[in-house]
Amino acid sequence: MPGLDGDRIRKRLDDARLYLCTDARARQGDLAEFADAALAGGVDIVQLRDKTGGKPLEAAQEIAALEILAEACARHGALLAVNDRADVAVAVDADVLHLGQDDLPVAVARRIVGDDVVIGRSTHSWEQAAAAATEEGVDYFCVGPCWPTPTKPGRAAPGLDLVRAVSSGIETTRPWFAIGGIDLARLDDVLAAGAERAVVVRAITEAGDPAEAARELRHGLTRAG
Ligand SMILES: Cc1ncc(COP(=O)(O)OP(=O)(O)O)c(N)n1
Ligand SMILES: Cc1nc(C(=O)O)sc1CCOP(=O)(O)O
Ligand SMILES: [Mg+2]
Question: Where on the tree of life does the source sit, at the highest rank (predicted)?
Answer without folding.
Answer: Bacteria
